[in-house]
Amino acid sequence: MKKIIVAITALSLTLGMAGCQSAARNCGGNTTLELELNQKLEEITWKNNSLWYLTRPMTDDDIAKTHTFQESSNFGVFEGSVTVVERKE
Questions:
Q1: Which of 4, 15, 36, 50 has the greatest CB tally within 10 Å of its CB?
Q2: What's the rounded Cα separation, in Å, for the pair 14 and 24?
């Protein structure tokens, strides 16, 4: 019984970790990535447990947006997300 409580507690802590990219990738957590000022998101992907994203400088016509990169798993158990926030001066 004690092992079950420890396992549930460990799983809860892992799933509750926001801001950790590997937790979002492996355990269905959520994290937010704020881009540097005047950077526009072009593309985003995972390579193993690392999050890679391509940015470019914003033009005068660009509008700062918020993007959500979500996982859709087969059984809906560990579905994580990464929210990318662009900021414009």
A1: 15
A2: 10
Contact 28, 18 (CB under 8 A): no
Q: In whole angstroms, give the CA distance from residue 36 to residue 28.
A: 25
Residue among 18, 38, 14 nearest 27 (CA): 14
Its pTM surpasses 0.85: no
Domain boundaries, the chain: 2-85
For the segment 28-77, what is each residue's pLDDT rounded down to a tens digit? 678 999 999 999 999 998 888 788 999 999 999 999 999 998 887 777 66
Q: What is the DSSP string of 6-75?
A: HHHHHHHHHHT-TT-HHHHHHH--EEEEEPPTTEEEEEEEEETTEEEEEEEE--TT----EEEEE---SS
